Amino acid sequence: MSLRQGPVESLHNGMIPVDIHTSTSGRDAMLGQQLVYFNLFGFFCSFRKTQLNLYFEHLHKKYGKLVKVRTGNRWDIFVFDPEYIRLLMAQEGKCPNRMTPPILNVFYDKKGIKKTFSSLQGEEWHAKRMHVQKFINARSVNSYLPSQNSVANDLVIQLDKNENELEIDDVLSRYVADVNAVVAFNSKMGFLDDEILRECPEKREYLVASRRTFSLFAESMFSVPFFKYYETRIYKDFESSLDSVIRFIRVEVSKAIKRSMSEMSKCEDNLLINMYRSGIYGWDELSLIMHSLMFAGVNSTSATLQWLLWSLSGDEEVQARLHEEISENMGQSLYIQPTTLAHMPYLKACVKECFRLVFPSLNGSMRILPQETIVDKYILPKGTYVHFGHNALCRSEEYFESPNEFKPERWLSGTKDQAIKLKMSYAVMPFGFGPRSCLGRRFAEQEIYLAVIKIVQNFQLYRDTNAKTPEVLYSTIPFPSCPFPVKFRKR
Ligand code: HEM
Predict the structure, then answer these.
(1) Would you say the CB of residue 297 lies under 6 angstroms from ligand 1?
(2) Please, are residues 363 and 387 in contact by the beta-carbon 8 Å criterion?
């Protein structure tokens, strides 16, 4: 066992330094203590690869709030406590470091392309993030509302046309691709229009390549990264699909800029035009930034929408209350105003509750500690990989009554005391936190709200009771074990 005590401990006023380098046996779990050793590879014995979320719940239940886990050649710390998360957040500094996705790094290095947000660290990351961040604020996100609203109207047309023979995942991922395109290319691409997709095979190909890139990306996160040393099958497929995605984006970005040239003065809040006008970015880099905006969120946003529709379809009362809030604020109006969104607490509670019930990522955020940090009675050295166990906390009875039930009311103001509410919000952080939190959060939320408002305004959701009930499985994001048996009945 390598919890070093004695002389080192006394140097630190009774704190226990944690050794993250010594390679002890992964099976030396110290039961009954807060900090334990466990071997991440141990989960393969009892947990399916797609149910690692249950493994995290198991670690939390069995070993407590801080767990030391062997991951490959490192020992990482998993934190299962909202108060410790708050404490670690407060100390993360101006340039928080996160693990960068290895397959993207290999791709960028091979192509000699400048890296974007999730692949950068330190000052380089900070400079790029600050530059783009200043163009993404409430006003600029709201400026896309009318065009995104029109995409949401297309979604209703598509659902109405196909009502009961829908592949929800296909329709919703086309919706999200199109609302994101409004941001990246300043125009609707028509991904939701079957005729446009038939006439423009490059758009259909883009959707296919984009999905393929994401699924290979997820696969690469669970494989030994041999692609760092030679071109594995996963890498070759990843490179070819990402190449075609970037080609498509490059062409569309350039068309968008030409289109918008004549209207430059009207584009004060426009992200693409502002970035182009700054003169800092070359074509490749601009296309890659737009790609990370298109790509980073498409899958999480459409997965969240699918799980939310599923939850709503099983609860008539919640649906009725949500419908009432929508009708009060919108009537039958086709267009949603920013002020309308500001008056929909129940809608926001439904979305938050969906994030809690089906957390949108396998575990949660992670950080590489910038300095030695004390958590409880343990000293974690600089460089420790710390994972925040939101997925397990979201289903913990300690913070949530009836954690397996969909209860949006728990998020409404006035229902809990402040200390409990604070813990609940640190337990559920779907977009991460601090300066390195999700860059697209405002966009993602707007896209989800728009789709839900339009769907609930126009349809009643119900479930096909003869079909199987989907279980939550995970790649890097949640997916259902079988197609969602959600049905739409026009109101
Ligand atoms: C439901 C939808 C989404 C979820 C749950 C989500 C979640 C996250 C999380 C957890 C992170 C890491 C945060 C951290 O480490 O603290 C992140 C980063 C990021 N997200 Fe999102 N995201 C979503 C949608 C989007 C969208 C729509 C976009 C783009 C328009 C986007 C762009 C990004 C980017 C660029 C980063 C990297 C930021 C950086 O490293 O500086 N995300 N997201």
Answers:
(1) yes
(2) yes
Between the CA of 118 and the centroid of ligand 1 the distance, in Å, is 9
CA of 19 to the centre of ligand 1 (A): 32
Tell me, in angstroms, the distance from the centre of ligand 1 to residue 116's CA: 13
Site to probe by mutation for ligand 1, drawn from 115, 355, 438 as the one with most ligand atoms within 8 Å of Cβ, is 438
Owner of token pair 């029109």: 150
Cα–Cα distance for residue pair 459/462, rounded to 1 Å: 10
H/E segment holding residue 264 = none
The residue behind tokens 């105003």 is 337
The CATH homologous superfamily of the domain defined by 81-365+396-490: Cytochrome P450 (1.10.630.10)
**Residue of minimum CA distance from atom 23 in ligand 1:** 297
> Taking the CB of residue 123, how many other CB atoms lie within 10 A of it?
10
Token duo for residue 435: 């300066």
Reported in sequence order, the residue ranges of 61-103 that DSSP labels E, i.e. its strands, are 66-71, 74-79
Contacts of 358 (CB under 8 A, 6+ apart): 304, 307, 472, 478
Structural domain spans, the chain: 81-365+396-490
Q: Which atom of ligand 1 is nearest to the CA of 183?
A: 30
What DSSP string describes 336-348? --HHHHTT-HHHH
- State the distance from the centre of ligand 1 to the C-alpha of 301, rounded, in angstroms: 10
Q: Which helix (H) or strand (E) holds 46?
A: helix 43-46
- Nearest-CA neighbor of 176 among 457, 449, 448, 487? 448
Q: Which of 135, 7, 16 is nearest to 77 (CA)?
A: 16
Residue 136 CB less than 6 A away from ligand 1: no
pLDDT, one tens digit for every residue, the chain (491 residues): 232 222 223 334 455 667 666 544 333 333 334 455 454 544 444 667 788 899 889 889 888 899 888 777 788 899 999 999 999 999 999 999 999 889 999 999 998 888 888 889 999 999 989 988 888 888 899 999 999 999 999 999 999 887 666 788 899 999 999 999 998 888 889 999 999 999 999 999 999 998 899 899 988 888 888 999 999 999 999 999 999 998 898 898 888 888 877 665 566 778 888 888 888 887 777 877 887 777 778 889 999 999 999 999 999 999 999 999 999 998 878 888 888 898 999 999 999 999 999 999 988 899 999 999 988 888 889 999 999 999 999 999 999 999 999 999 999 977 678 888 899 999 999 999 999 999 999 999 999 999 999 999 999 999 988 888 999 999 889 999 998 989 999 99
Is residue 53 lining ligand 1, measured as CB closer than 6 Å?
A: no
